Each structure stands twice: as structure tokens, then as C-alpha cells.
Automatic annotation (TrEMBL):
Gene3D superfamilies: Electron Transport, Fmn-binding Protein, Chain A. Catalyzes the oxidation of either pyridoxine 5'-phosphate (PNP) or pyridoxamine 5'-phosphate (PMP) into pyridoxal 5'-phosphate (PLP). This is pyridoxal 5'-phosphate synthase. Keywords: Flavoprotein, FMN, Oxidoreductase. GO terms for molecular function: FMN binding; pyridoxamine phosphate oxidase activity. Belongs to the pyridoxamine 5'-phosphate oxidase family.
């Protein structure tokens, strides 16, 4: 009888020890999970947030634009790409990416084909909008995002005001101006043949790459310029300039 009790006690004791160990492991796992959750909560609390501040704003928006544009150029990034939005007289809006050909103290100069849809819309409605978007990563892996929006009117420039821009164009751009009727239907091989023949004539000195009459330049004169700058996970800073007479009035606005 005593042997049976001893065996039963040993069996019960082993099961009890197993249960204690199992419960201990379970509690340890719970504490570990709680620790992970606490760490995640702490991470969320410690995550960078706040309001970004771009600093003192100059009185002239072109001074700020030149500063940002210069920084973008120094970083070997595409600083001159812009989105131009035009609108027909019937209210049909079109957007496309162009290249900023020249930055003046009072406006933005672009170049295009006056047989294009954009030129037709510009003739119907000179009110346009431009958008520049610049994004780069800093050494800490944080993104600095900058956007400049401009709204205003546009006018065609006389040739003497911008012919130097065309003269600096690379060869492929000058050939494109001669062989491409922008926006029209083409057969690829026909266009390729026209390109090759034009190039061959130029190489043999039979052709001078003069500017064709349909290549024109426009200048956009903004009456509104808006600067948006965001850094990391902070809420962006945003400043709007409105032109009143010869002066610019600036205000910070919510992102």
C-alpha cells in the first residue's frame, strides 16, 4: 500500500512540476509579448513628428525659387522638368511635361512647336499653371520634398528675345524640329528615314540647322507662386505669394 501511495505521489509531483514549468514558460511568453508591444508603442511615441519650418521667407518668390532650383541643380537632379497645364476656350484642360529653357527675374521661358495642341490652347486661353516637383534623400535617409506651383498668364516671345536658346540646342533637338510635326500621326519607318536623310545632309555640309518658323518660345508671368516643403515625417510648411501691382504678398497656409 505504501509503495502505491509513494508511486502516486511521485506521479502527481512530476505532473505538478511540469505544470509549474509550463505555467512559468507561458508567463514568460506573455511578458515577452507585452515587452514587444510596449516597444512598438514606444516606437510609435518616439516616431518623428511635428511641423516642418522652411525658415525665413524672402519678399520676392523668385529669390526662393532660384535658391531651390540652384540646390536641385547642384545635386545633379532634374531641376528643369515642369508640368504645364493649359485650358481651351471650352474648358478642356491638358497637362504635359516640358523643360524650363530659361529662368528670368519675372517669369519662366519654355519652347515648343506652334502647330501643337498646347499652342492652340495658349492662343485660345493664355491662363496657365506650372508645377515643379523636386524630391531628394538626405544622408540620414530622410526625404526632402519640394513643390512649386505657379499660376499666371503666358505670351509668345519675339525671336530676338530667345534665339540663343535654340542655338544651344543639341543636334537631336534640331533634327526633331525639322522632321517632326508635333502631335500628328506618323509611320515609324518613314520618320526614321526622314531623320537619317536629314542627319546625312547635315554631316555632308548640305544642310544648316536653322530654326524653323514653327519653333516658338513662350514666357509665363506668374501672379501666384506657392512653395511646399516637407521633410521626413513632419507636416509640411507651405507659403503662398500673390502679386498685387508690382509687389508680392506672402502668407503661410496649412499643408
Amino acid at each position: 500500500m505504501g509503495g502505491k501511495l509513494s508511486s502516486s505521489f511521485e506521479f502527481f509531483n512530476s505532473k505538478f512540476e511540469f505544470g509549474v514549468k509550463f505555467l512559468g514558460r507561458a508567463l514568460a511568453n506573455v511578458r515577452q509579448l507585452r515587452g514587444i508591444a510596449a516597444a512598438e508603442n514606444l516606437k510609435a511615441v518616439a516616431e518623428d513628428t511635428g511641423l516642418h519650418y522652411m525658415g525665413t521667407i524672402p519678399k520676392d518668390p523668385f529669390d526662393l525659387f532660384k535658391n531651390w532650383h540652384g540646390q536641385q541643380t547642384q545635386n545633379n537632379l532634374s531641376a528643369n522638368a515642369l508640368c504645364l497645364s493649359t485650358c481651351s476656350k471650352s474648358g478642356y484642360v491638358t497637362s504635359r511635361t516640358l523643360i524650363l529653357r530659361r529662368l528670368d527675374d519675372d517669369g519662366f521661358v519654355i519652347m515648343t512647336d506652334n502647330r501643337s495642341k498646347k499652342s492652340r490652347q495658349l492662343e485660345e486661353n493664355p491662363n496657365v499653371a506650372m508645377n515643379f516637383l523636386w524630391i531628394k534623400e538626405d544622408p540620414n535617409g530622410l526625404l526632402l520634398s519640394r513643390q512649386v506651383r505657379a499660376e499666371g498668364s503666358i505670351k509668345q516671345l519675339v525671336e530676338d528675345e530667345w534665339i540663343d536658346i535654340y542655338e544651344r540646342e543639341p543636334l537631336f533637338c534640331k533634327i526633331r524640329a525639322l522632321v517632326c510635326h508635333q502631335g500628328t500621326k506618323i509611320e515609324w519607318q518613314d520618320l526614321k528615314d526622314s531623320h537619317d536623310n536629314t542627319l546625312k545632309k547635315w554631316q555632308h555640309g548640305e544642310l544648316v540647322m536653322e530654326k524653323p518658323n514653327h519653333v516658338v518660345a513662350y514666357k509665363m508671368f506668374p501672379t501666384m507662386m506657392e512653395f511646399y516643403e516637407a521633410y521626413g515625417s513632419k507636416i509640411a510648411d507651405r507659403v503662398m505669394f500673390l502679386k498685387q501691382g508690382e509687389d508680392w504678398i506672402s502668407n503661410r497656409i496649412a499643408a
